[in-house]
Amino acid sequence: MNRWQRSSQDWDEIHRNLLKQIPFAGKEFDGASIENYVHRAVKKAMAHGIGSPSFSPAFRASSFDCEVFETHLSIFVQCRFPEGELPKGFKLFASRTKLKLEAGERSETVSLPGEINPSRTLARFRGGILEVRLPKSGEPEAYREIFVREGESSL
Fold this sequence. Notes:
This is HSP20 family molecular chaperone IbpA. The protein is 25% helix and 28% strand. It is an alpha+beta fold.
């Protein structure tokens, strides 16, 4: 085997090994499979995320020690409560663009990076961590027709 053939085989092996590491390489794109992969990746990142020096959240907000993450279908907010339990009288409110956390006199609003559907929001508290999943609004931006006047009239 000459030097060029060996080099070609080396590149083929590199290519095969590289494709093994890319989850969707060489496959048809299936939205559900990609969404499941992203959910698993976010869940894995969130499980190791808070307090990990190697983890860099997309956005850190609040005195409630919250982090905000986003996928193409949902926005996730994760808040850490070091005392291991929710504060007395804790309440959570969602609007299309904000999440509001309240505990007695303490109140904080977290701006969300996109519009969500508040009625489909889910929250779970476990192990001192509040996880909130806010599904993005599936409604496309509404357009309104604007009528154009002809002539010299002022706006």
